[in-house]
């Protein structure tokens, strides 16, 4: 596979600085080498650069950096659209606001080739606020609502060339949902598997059922992997830690199943804040998970000494 690495060093969507170093940390942790060792060709396209942001007024006075996020979203969407036409794009965040651009960009590509886009959202949070409902004002909490065409973004974020059908979205690993998001998710019809569902049924049957739907519709699959999908005991480098996340083996199993499906066509790696990491352990884990998604088997896993 031809992998195209796109850096999106965005930290304007979160209330804590440090995510802009995420792409560099993933590269330093050996992402390109890990992909090359698996036989993939890799083109590192560097980092996208937004145009100057403009001041945007909104009735919700809690919103932070709306102009900056609007500028980032537009340029990331264009980069995602371009990269998705030439291989498998892997987007290195940056906070989760980058997915407003990555998902909308690959959705445009999917619409052009006449195939449905599915989204697997691996996250502690559904990020399904609108500009009107967010109370924190941090815009890493809105990208999934935006990309699925929920109301309230018109005139503030770039217009969407194509939206994702919310019925083709699976949010897995959820364990922190605001009341407004709960209502919106139910109304939109997003498939949500929280950590109780994972505890009761195991991650494999939940993910398998979703992958079967993607295959049945000949869909493209975008995977958005947030560091806080993982339990903070194994992945501390995130500013939005929520206890009770996916274990090491649950996460690797999900990645291995995604590889076996052959359905994944684009990937986000988001919310890595190296300033909060411990000797690079979270960045290394994110690279290892990416390698599992891209074909590394347990028998291929090297033994490391520290």
SSE topology:
Layout: E1 2-8, H1 22-28, H2 31-37, E2 41-47, H3 66-84, E3 88-93, H4 98-113, E4 117-122, H5 143-147, E5 169-174, H6 179-188, E6 191-194, H7 195-201, H8 203-216, E7 220-226, H9 248-261, E8 264-270, H10 281-293
Helix pairs in contact: 1-10, 3-4, 7-8, 8-9, 9-10
Radius of gyration: 18 Å
CATH topology: Arginase, Chain A
Per DSSP, what share of the residues sits in E-state strands of 2 or more residues? 15-25%
**Quick check: average pLDDT?**
96
The end-to-end distance, rounded to whole angstroms, is 31 Å
CATH homology superfamily name? Ureohydrolase domain
> Can you list the strand order of the major beta sheet?
2-1-3-8-7-4-5-6
SS-based class: alpha/beta
- Kindly provide the name of the CATH class: Alpha Beta
Q: Element order, helices and strands?
A: EHHEHEHEHEHEHHEHEH
Number of domains: 1
Specify the number of helices.
10
> How would you describe the oligomerization state of the chains in this entry?
single chain
Q: What is the total tally of β strands?
A: 8
Shape, per Cα inertia axes: globular
Profile the largest sheet: 8 strands, parallel
- CATH architectural name: 3-Layer(aba) Sandwich
Low-confidence blocks of residues = none
As a percent range, the share of helical residues equals 25-40%
In short:
With 306 residues, the protein is an alpha/beta fold. The protein is built from ten helices and eight strands. 37% of the residues lie in helices and 16% in strands.
């Amino acid at each position: 596979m031809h992998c195209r690495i796109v850096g999106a060093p965005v930290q304007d969507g979160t209330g804590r600085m440090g995510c802009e170093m995420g792409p560099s940390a993933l590269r330093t942790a050996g992402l390109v080498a890990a992909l090359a060792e698996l036989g993939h060709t890799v083109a590192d396209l560097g980092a996208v650069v937004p145009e100057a942001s403009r001041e945007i007024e909104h009735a919700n006075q809690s919103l932070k950096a709306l102009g900056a996020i609007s500028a980032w979203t537009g340029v990331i969407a264009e980069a995602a659209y371009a990269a998705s036409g030439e291989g498998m794009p892997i987007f290195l965040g940056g906070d989760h606001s980058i997915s407003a651009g990555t998902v909308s960009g690959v959705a445009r590509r999917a619409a052009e080739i006449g195939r449905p886009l599915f989204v697997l959202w691996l996250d502690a949070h559904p990020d399904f606020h609108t500009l009107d409902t967010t109370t924190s004002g941090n815009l890493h909490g809105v990208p999934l609502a935006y990309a699925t065409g929920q109301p309230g973004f018109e005139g503030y974020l770039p217009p969407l060339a194509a939206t994702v059908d919310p019925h083709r979205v699976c949010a897995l690993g959820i364990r922190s949902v605001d009341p407004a998001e709960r209502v919106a998710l139910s109304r939109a019809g997003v498939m949500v598997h929280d950590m109780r569902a994972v505890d009761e049924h195991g991650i494999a049957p939940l993910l398998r059922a979703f992958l079967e739907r993607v295959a049945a519709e000949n869909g493209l699959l975008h995977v958005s992997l947030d560091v806080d999908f993982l339990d903070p005991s194994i992945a501390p480098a995130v500013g939005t830690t929520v206890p009770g996340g996916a274990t090491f083996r649950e996460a690797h199993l999900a990645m291995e199943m995604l590889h076996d499906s052959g359905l994944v066509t684009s990937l986000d790696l988001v919310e890595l804040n190296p300033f909060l990491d411990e000797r690079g352990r979270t960045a290394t884990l994110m690279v290892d998970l990416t390698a599992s998604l891209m074909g590394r088997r347990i028998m291929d896993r090297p033994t490391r000494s520290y």
